[in-house]
């Protein structure tokens, strides 16, 4: 009986994991061009992001030459200033998978200041559980003081997305992290990344069912 109960729990857990994997999507930032300075005629990263509905559990895949570039997760003021010396996380492995694990805004810039100033930068807004995007966090516009927060990001004269200002949330600085393997789920630029995980679950469930059959 104990074996049957264990099999039942394994099957239930497998279905839960498969359902979670099926709902997540991995987005390759920059498409075939990857994480690099956009061409003059190319769509900007933020224009692409504005047209994409990001959900909690999705992930971003940054692909770039690790000896020439990197990805920084930064605060809004550092995003606006292309300040590469202050960041929350640094990724430099050349193929970085970043999990969108909360609602709200995420700010990314190139680790090369010149690249950032050439628009290799990205703001991703993640919708909350109700489907609506959470208000953007703090952002300092230009060299002035932060203005009161508003319900939606504004645009600069160059067309870039500039979130409304509010007090800067505290965060650990200058921590480093390596990119994790691509998240399970649907890949917006190719096959799903959860194939191996699904195969493993199927094998485990099949073995459990076979064991239960012999027991009876």
Please give a structural write-up:
- The structure is a single chain.
- The chain is α/β, with parallel strands linked by helices and 216 residues long.
- The protein contains five helices and twelve strands.
- The strands form three sheets. The protein has a six-stranded mixed sheet. A four-stranded mixed sheet has the order 6-3-1-12. Strands 9-10 form a two-stranded antiparallel sheet.
- α1 runs antiparallel to α5.
- The longest helix is centred in the first third of the chain and has 22 residues.
- It is globular.
Question: What labels would you give this structure?
Answer:
21% strand; 5 helices; globular; 12 strands; 4-stranded mixed beta sheet; 216 residues; alpha/beta; 6-stranded mixed beta sheet
Biggest beta sheet attributes? 6 strands, mixed
**Contiguous uncertain segments of 5+ residues:** 9-21, 138-159, 164-172, 175-185, 189-199
Number of strands: 12
Order of helices and strands: HEHEEEHEEEHEEEEEH
Q: What is the end-to-end distance?
A: 10 Å
Secondary-structure class: alpha/beta
Query: Roughly what percent helix?
Result: 25-40%
Strand order in the sheet with the most strands = 2-8-7-4-5-11
Strand content: 15-25%
Summarize the structure.
With 216 residues, the protein is an alpha/beta fold. 28% of the residues lie in helices and 21% in strands.
Layout of strands and helices, then pairs:
Blueprint: H1 2-23, E1 25-28, H2 45-50, E2 54-55, E3 59-63, E4 71-74, H3 76-81, E5 89-91, E6 95-99, E7 104-110, H4 113-117, E8 121-127, E9 154-155, E10 161-162, E11 175-176, E12 186-187, H5 195-215
Parallel strand pairs: 1-3, 1-12, 2-8, 5-11
Antiparallel strand pairs: 3-6, 4-5, 4-7, 7-8, 9-10
